[in-house]
Amino acid sequence: MEIAVFGATGGTGNQFAVQATGADHQLRALTRSPEKLSGWDAVASVKGNVLEPDTVLRTVEGADAVVCILGRTKNNPVDVVSRGTEHIVGAMQEHDVKRLVVVTSIGLGASVTNLAWYGRVANATVLHDLMADKARQEELVMRSRLDWTIVRPGGLTDGPHTGNYVHGSDVDVEAAPISRADVADFLLRVLERNLYVREAPLVTTREGVDLAFLWEQVRDVTTRLLWGT
């Protein structure tokens, strides 16, 4: 499969690239830093920014599917996720590419019921702008005529690839730690098996949440928003 990827140099995007190329898929990735993808025979990089419609068009052209794992850092505007997604959707419609898999977050839409109280407080305060941008992203995708899947993961960690996670559009589980490697595994499964078309499944684990995990989440978000890494 030829897959256009947006966000391949991020934590989850990098894990997806590793697993997708390991499964013999070909990737074309838009990035501002092509050197981060050097040495990958099965990954063709397109230098540019998701806010540039022309480079988005070049990245999508000829793809069988698109995976969008956009995030926001200090070097981007606060609405980079929704604006970038708007360009991606437009490019897919122009090139007649139908399959889109997008990563957002638990806490959006109906999945707010899967979020513990402290997660809801965080989303309504320090993460308000970020979550509002992701909400606009979801709205853009859902309004499109594409064969979309919106994946809402739980709290992301840098843990190992285990394959031990739960997923579903209506599953009774609270958001818990899940490794970026396992989220990438789920994204690849959704693509290869054509699962959850025009649905928004969450993916998480049944692990317990402790103070160490909460601190890691705060540190991760702060690092990305303040230092852009």
Feature tags:
229 residues, alpha/beta, two-stranded parallel sheet, globular
Please characterize this protein's 3D structure.
The protein is of the alpha/beta class and 229 residues long. It contains seven helices and ten strands. An eight-stranded mixed beta sheet has the order 3-2-1-4-5-6-10-8, with helices on both faces. α2 crosses α3. The mean pLDDT is 87.
SS-derived structural category? alpha/beta
Radius of gyration of CA atoms, rounded to a whole number? 16 Å
User: How many beta strands in the DSSP annotation?
Assistant: 10
Distance between the termini: 30 Å
Helical stretch tally: 7
Instruction: Characterize the overall form.
Output: globular
Largest sheet: 8 strands, mixed
Task: Estimate the mean pLDDT confidence.
Answer: 87
Portion in helices? 25-40%
Strand order within the widest beta sheet: 3-2-1-4-5-6-10-8
Strand content: 15-25%
SSE inventory with pairings:
Elements: E1 2-6, H1 11-22, E2 26-31, E3 43-47, H2 53-60, E4 65-68, H3 80-95, E5 99-103, H4 117-124, H5 128-143, E6 147-153, E7 156-157, E8 166-168, E9 178-179, H6 180-193, E10 202-204, H7 211-227
Parallel strand pairs: 1-2, 1-4, 2-3, 4-5, 5-6, 6-10, 7-9
Antiparallel strand pairs: 8-10
Helix pairs in contact: 1-6, 2-3, 3-5
